[in-house]
Amino acid sequence: MLHQDYKFESRALYPELKGKRVVVTGGASGIGKATVNRFVLEGSKVVVFDYNDKAFPALMEEIPGIAGCVKVDVSSEESVKAAFEEMDKILGGIDILISNAGISIRKKFIETDFAQWKRVMGVNLDGMCLCIMEALRRMKNEKTKDDTGVILCTASTNGMEGHPFYTDYNASKAAVINLVRSVALEHAPWIRCNCICPGYVLTPMQEAEYTQEMFEECNKGIPLGRHADPAEVAALYAFLASDEAKYITGQHIPLDGGETA
């Protein structure tokens, strides 16, 4: 575990989220897991989508309020369709989609083979596309101007600027930002669609790629001097899904400790 002298405590703040039907992709770990926990605390009915079904028993034990868990490969159209059909059986519909599943592989671009490129794009961009499509098909028949559906995606500050060793990841996240903008424009005012652009977040994916020395060097470039806690990202998701954010759509919101400033 990388050292982090900070812990954000989640707490319920938005009573209007109680009873809302929520899907969180990549919900078994990292930002997704923190987001699942936050919406369960808010009283929402949450279904977790994740490829790692081996994590489900421990996840259900740790967060007992989860409505259900579904194994899904978000890069597969057939898998996503089947997962949403299973979600229909559990929740009977969807009010909020948190499309969060993503992968990254630290490698120089010149050393990246096309199979890796397609895999990263498949999960990070195709996965967003497929899940948004399935959510929209369900939301458009139910939502009104006074009861909007909410679609929120995890992009990245890497989609806003260039970074070495993550060219495929950067390209995928830049595409997610414009995907969100376009979906928001086409489906307003019945659907609100935004994305969060986290900077460095202390997640298992980050820990797998960085040594302690890299972690400490990275923190020197962040004005707040640390990585984000996943629960801080989850807190922004809860706000964006709440009535407090009813006038926010088509936006990409950095959460980076001031790094991009």
Kindly describe this structure.
This protein is 41% helix and 14% strand. It has 261 residues and is an alpha/beta fold. It has one domain (16-255): Rossmann fold (3-Layer(aba) Sandwich), CATH 3.40.50.720. The protein has a seven-stranded parallel β-sheet, with helices on both faces. α4 (114-139) packs parallel to α5 (167-187). The longest helix has 26 residues, at 114-139. The radius of gyration is 17 Å and the shape is globular. The model has no long low-confidence stretch (mean pLDDT 94).
**CATH topology grouping:** Rossmann fold
CATH class: Alpha Beta
Count of folded domains = 1
Shape: globular
Q: What separation lies between the terminal Cα atoms? A: 28 Å
Which labels suit this protein?
single chain; 261 residues; alpha/beta; Rossmann fold; 7-stranded parallel sheet; 7 strands; 41% helix; globular
What is the strand and helix layout of this fold?
Blueprint: E1 21-25, H1 30-41, E2 45-50, H2 56-62, E3 68-71, H3 77-91, E4 96-99, H4 114-139, E5 149-154, H5 167-187, E6 191-198, H6 204-209, H7 212-220, H8 230-241, E7 252-255
Helix pairs in contact: 1-8, 3-4, 4-5
How would you concisely characterize the structure shown here?
With 261 residues, the protein is α/β, with parallel strands linked by helices.
